[in-house]
Amino acid sequence: MASPPITLITGASGGIGAALAWQAAASGHHLILTGRRTHLLTELAEALTARHGGNILTIESDLSAPDGADSLINSIIAHGWRVDHLINNAGFGTAGDLASIPPARLQSLVHVNILSLTTLTRQLLPPMLSKGSGGILNVASLAAFQPGPLMAAYYASKSYVLSLTEALHHECKGSGVRVSCLCPGATATGFASEAHMENSRLFLSNPMTAETVARIGWRGYLRGRRVIIPGWKNKTLAILSKITPHAVSLPLVRKLHESA
Ligand SMILES: NC(=O)c1ccc[n+]([C@@H]2O[C@H](COP(=O)([O-])OP(=O)(O)OC[C@H]3O[C@@H](n4cnc5c(N)ncnc54)[C@H](OP(=O)(O)O)[C@@H]3O)[C@@H](O)[C@H]2O)c1
Fold first, then answer.
1. What is the pLDDT of residues 20-43, one digit of tens each?
2. Whether the model pTM is above 0.70
3. Which residues line ligand 1 (CB under 6 A)?
4. Where are the domains positioned within the chain?
5. Ligand 1 center to residue 11 CA distance, Å?
6. 3-class SS at 239?
7. What superfamily does domain 6-257 belong to in CATH?
């Protein structure tokens, strides 16, 4: 009998990543859970095993380090594990004028949201293609669809993720490997406090739960969707973002990021 698939989830210590871990475990996957807060990974692994069984490996991983993605892959290999499905979920935002954000924080953002995601994708895709199975779910955001004043680098990073993933989806057509991009709107997780924007209009406007986002995201991934936007409100916003001139959307998006 074939062994269960193994899914690697980055940023599994909370929020959407942890909720995706519940979805993958419920589908019978073994899991590799990574993040910096290892105590949360351990607690999650214990809860998942108690409910669903399955093997779970937790690995401490800082994806803002220049060699973070390569170290993570080396660690997985050293444990004798493989990766059948990759969920690039780790990410964070920074609020404020770009000129006021400490350069090191911006560099971390680019490392986590862009560079590590790209390295993990590049390194883990070839074995999937050789086997003709598995896949990659990249977590972007509704922010990917337009520029975002007061969160400029974050929005730009998510545009990169969406563009990369859509192109890769096309490259992998017919290979047996599925590639999807999950684009949530505002979601109630640790994201807003990490970005210092709990009082912004965006996060005071009834955010979705991480569980709902993960359920829709996982189902869309299993169905091989190219882009998955959870919820009709977010779908409408994505369409409006595409058709609204930036001269109009820029001040509106800025307002969303300001305190109410
Ligand atoms: N919440 C939203 O409104 C929203 C909307 C659209 C898209 N998203 C995206 O959804 C994804 C998950 O975010 P979330 O909302 O679930 O926020 P969250 O609760 O803050 O979770 C973020 C995860 O990323 C991990 N992470 C952050 N920096 C890291 C680093 N240097 N190295 C390794 N892991 C790191 C964190 O793990 P550790 O702290 O343990 O390292 C954590 O598990 C992100 O890509 C985010 O951009 C969120």
1. 999 999 999 999 999 999 999 999
2. yes
3. 10-11, 13-17, 35-37, 61-64, 89-92, 112, 139, 141, 184, 186-187, 189-191, 194, 210
4. 6-257
5. 6
6. helix
7. NAD(P)-binding Rossmann-like Domain (3.40.50.720)
